Amino acid sequence: MARYLEDVLKYVDSFLYHTIKNSARWVNKPKWHMLLHLPESIARFGPPSLFATEKFESFNRIMRLASVHSNRNHPGRDIAISFVNFQSIQLILSGAQLINHQSGQTFHAQPNVTNLFKENHMIQKSMGYDAHILQEDNYYPIEMSSRLPADEKEPTPHYLIERFSGSTIKQIHQLRISSKKVCKKGFFVLLVT
User: What are the pLDDT digits (tens) for 136-158?
Assistant: First the structure.
């Protein structure tokens, strides 16, 4: 672990050096300063988890919304209150176990409250929730809507006809196999349904 921490510190220092050398205006950014504390955090809490840019962009959207609706007198407090409100709504609508601090009893939101979120796509959209993004793997592969040009049409290879007799074999123009990958001409895909 000590060797790993030395390497992290060396790479952070190198990264910051080259960043400052390129443009010194980045020096005052809190995100860059936090990198200096990365080795201590790793020693205390373990290796850092991977970060996804989409999550940070989503976070920035919430920050922007909270700061736009701030009264400008106490923007930090207003943003913190917005985050607490978002967290509370998330807990309530997800059916989490909640506690009444006055009585000490635990409870769950009633199904009619959680169903308000589950069944209303407008509310989901207003809160930045998109079920299609979360379940996108269930929708692949998808035949693309682009039509196969007549000059690219090829006869079905005889070994496929022999091997899969009784099956439907068709040539398509493109097949989307994930959100970022598309199979085009020159590939064969066996899809069993």
Answer: 555 678 888 888 888 888 888 88
Instruction: Give how far the C-alpha of residue 7 lies from the chain's centroid of Cα atoms, to the nearest Å.
Output: 29
Domain ranges of the chain: 2-45, 67-134, 138-183
Cα angle 95, 99, 101 (rounded to 5 degrees) comes to: 155
- E strands, 58-187, in order: 98-99, 106-107, 142-143, 175-176, 182-183
> What burial letters (b/e) apply to 120-156, b meaning 16+ CB within 10 Å?
eeeeeeeeeeeeeeeeeeeeeeeeeeeeeeeeeeeee
Task: Note the pLDDT tens digit of each residue in 109-130.
Answer: 888 888 888 888 888 877 777 7
Rounded alpha-carbon distances, angstroms, from residue 98 to 15, 119, 184:
44, 22, 51
The four Cα atoms 81, 125, 128, 177 give a dihedral, to 10 degrees, of 170
**56, 54, 63: which is closest to 81 by C-alpha?**
63
For the question of whether the overall pTM of this predicted structure is more than 0.85, the answer is no
**How far, CA to CA in Å, does 3 sit from each of 8, 43, 49, 103?**
9, 11, 19, 51
